[in-house]
Amino acid sequence: MKIVKIIATALMAAVLAPPAVAQNAPDPHDPAAKKILDKVQQTTQSYETLRASFDWTLENKTQKTKDSKSGFMFIKGGKYKLILSGIEMFSDGTTMWTYSKDANEITISDVEEDDESITSNPTKIFDLYQKGFKYALKGEEQRNVKVKKDGKIVTEKKTCHIVDLYPESPKGKEFHTVELAIEKATTQIVSIDIKFKNGSDQIIEITEYKPNATMADALFTYDPAKYPGVEVNDMR
Fold first, then answer.
1. pLDDT tens for each residue of 60-76
2. H or E stretch including 163?
């Protein structure tokens, strides 16, 4: 399985491909948007590690269904771990392990070096725009942003930059737009809305950032002793 195949099952997939860019359309790589996105990346790169909590919601407005879950993400350089509703996905940068609590199984696969998708690597959230996307700054909005305080989720009004990303090659993509809400004061992404061509939205709301938290490398590798009796599927 892939990350959010579980976050696609968690962080991600689609209504119509975006319209062709008209002759007099604005720059598909909007310099105002790029300036903000570069700041987001610089902020994230300044952290040695990053621990974040998030709420994930899958909403299908056509079928009027909504499913929500909470999870945690740990990032240390090219290593990451994601925990979401009985699923753990972790990688040391070379190998990826996906653990399903319900099935009591671990799937092992190699990390694909050219994989730039957030559906298989959550660290790509912060520099997604650099490859394969057009982007545009929609403007500033006052957004109700979820924030974790004293272990509880509260909502606060925040001024946010709203930036839309569009695939440069939309054919074959499951989604048509990724909307980023970026808090102006902190230059941190507070929500990601992935709009799918099937009419559904996958919304990731980052409720807490904890930069430079202490993380042992063992967090990002598979220790058989921690998963007794698990079935191992080695796909390498």
1. 888 888 899 999 999 99
2. strand 152-167
